[in-house]
Amino acid sequence: MKRVVVVLCLACAAARPGEVLRIESSVEAMGSTYSVVAYGEDGLRLESAVDQAFEEVRRLDALLSNYKPHSEWSLLNREAARRPVRVSAELYRLLAACVDYSRRSEGAFDITVGPLMKTWGFYKGAGRLPQAVEIRDALAKVGYRDLDLDPAESAVRFRNAGMELDPGGIGKGYAVDRMVEVLRKNAIRSAMVSAGGSSIYGLGTPPEEAGWKVQLRHPKDPGRTVGEVSLRDESMSTSGSYEKFFVAGGRVYSHIFDPRTGYPAAGTLAVSVIAPRAIDSEAWTKPFFINGARWATGNRPRGYRVFLCEDKAEPTCAWLP
User: pLDDT tens digit string along 233-283?
Assistant: First the structure.
């Protein structure tokens, strides 16, 4: 049986024969905590690979942040309603993928929900109950079909004044995938990357295990679990009404909106999706949450696994058939 050694000293260069080193670290970026646990026999390689993965997520923060005024994402939100804005090939590909998710989900996924996030007070806030007229005004600025992408010029234009993109439904998953790619390029074969615990990728397996074990929390009691999964070269993302919400008039309003109605989705408490890539698992949690178990059962991509908790007196949580 191999011994596992925690790398506490960054001067550790290599494991002794038969030993496996472990490094664990985290960084704050893109409004979340990104953590990496990695195993290997070369401590310096582990340290370098994890550092490079964190540099990648910092780079993406500068690209995708809607809080940093100099990011490409913020530039689009400021200028694209007035003129076509040329963007990097990377950002263009990401936005094109978002439009594809929107089409395949019948509009339940929509990257243009920024006005709704602000109206409901979830942009830099804890939430508020808006007036119906405010919701109607915000909804008029939302709609992926009004996002014009020009592949010849790699340019983006908003058809509606006031439209704003929000990366909250896809940014963490994309970042996790990019971090995993950095680790792979550095010959790391055993690692788990997590973005706030809601988007996770298990690379290979940890020592003496068949996969990376992840607990599924009870949607109404964080001290309880409703299941466990084992990830091996695959991702899992979770969206739950417990992540961000407020209570008004005895009713709970979560941050997961149906972009077609302008109101928080109802009927679902949490959804976890297991898929090959974290960008896919994160993006699909929203349509499955919004459209419900029946729609998810009939429309999930082949090979994806979906764990859904319905909002009942006692939550009903199960893997979809």
Answer: 999 999 998 888 888 888 888 999 999 999 999 999 999 999 999 999 999
**56: nearest Cα among 96, 94, 75, 29:** 29
Taking alpha carbons only, the member of 243, 82, 205, 209 closest to residue 148 is 82
pLDDT average, residue stretch 176-198: 97
Render pLDDT for 71-103 as a digit per residue (tens, 0 to 9): 999 999 999 999 999 999 999 999 999 999 999
Tell me the pTM: 0.92
Round to whole Å and give the CA distance between 177 and 233. 11
pLDDT attached to residue 16? 66
Tens-digit pLDDT profile for residues 109-119: 999 999 999 99
Residue 1 pLDDT more than 80? no
CB–CB of 128/120 below 8 Å? yes
Quick one: three-class SS letters along the chain? CCEEEECCCCCCCCCCCCEEEEEEEEEEECCEEEEEEEEECCHHHHHHHHHHHHHHHHHHHHHHCCCCCCCHHHHHHHHCCCCCEECCHHHHHHHHHHHHHHHHCCCCCCCCEHHHHHHCCCCCCCCCCCCHHHHHHHHCCCCHHHEEEECCCCEEEECCCCCECCHHHCHHHHHHHHHHHHHHHCCCCEEEEEECCCEEEEECCCCCCCCEEEEEEECCEEEEEEEEEEECCEEEEEEECCCCEEEECCEEEECCEECCCCEECCCEEEEEEEECCHHHHHHHHHHHHHHHHHHHHHHCCCCCEEEEEECCCCCEEEECC
Rounded Cα–Cα distance for residues 303 and 207 (Å):
26
